[in-house]
Amino acid sequence: MISPIVHTKSENLACNAEPSVGTVLAFDFGEKRIGVAVGELELGLAHPLVTVSGEVTKNRFDAITKLIEEWEPVRLVVGLPVHPDGTEHKLTQLSKRFARRLEGRFKIGTKLVDERYTSVTASMGLREAGVKWKKQKLVIDQVAAQQILQSYFDRQNELT
Q1: Nearest-angstrom CA–CA distance, 118 and 84
Q2: Which of 17, 104, 138, 156 is the most exposed place for a label (fewest CB within 10 A)?
Q3: Quick check: 99 and 5 in contact, CB under 8 A?
């Protein structure tokens, strides 16, 4: 079962075989684009990787399969979008379904991470770096995935 994280400090995140070394891929799921970030558990640093575009599920999963084969992750992380008050919406359910499909297809433990405001803060950070809106569209999902993954790493560090 996919476990959510980043809700309360008392929540037990250990899933018996929680890896402590290896690569992690994170996904900022969207109906048209999926941002992907990568990082190493030992370093706890996330980096934007790529944006998978398109609305055809098979093509998106083909691209993700190539990333999984290339990076050989020990953990997958999927952003869980919710309203500011924590209530769910349509994309929440779609993201959960995406996470279940990843875990089922690739047999890699998958965690859900609260992603409130990641796209907004990603856009603000890119704007502060001088990246114009037109060019932001090319990388914003990757940067949002990077923030999701960094949140996961930071949360793991708080618990150790």
Answers
A1: 12
A2: 17
A3: no
Tokens of 97: 């379904």
DSSP string, 104-130: HHH---EEEEE-TTHHHHHHHHHHHTT
The model's pLDDT over 70-126, given as tens digits with 9 standing for 90+, comes to: 999 999 999 999 888 888 889 999 999 999 999 999 999 999 998 876 666 666 666
User: Residue 31 corresponds to which tokens in the numbers above?
Assistant: 């109906």
Dihedral sign of CA atoms 84, 87, 91, 97 in order: positive
Topology (CATH) of 3-7+20-159: Nucleotidyltransferase; domain 5 (3.30.420)
CB atoms closer than 10 angstroms to residue 8: 6
Tell me which residue of 135, 99, 127 sits closest to 115, measured CA to CA: 99
Chain mean position to CA 93: 15
Cα–Cα distance measured from residue 153 to residue 28, given in angstroms and rounded to the nearest whole number: 15
Show me where the domains of the chain are located. 3-7+20-159
* pLDDT value of residue 160: 56
Instruction: Enter the DSSP assignment of 42.
Output: T
pTM of the full predicted structure? 0.81
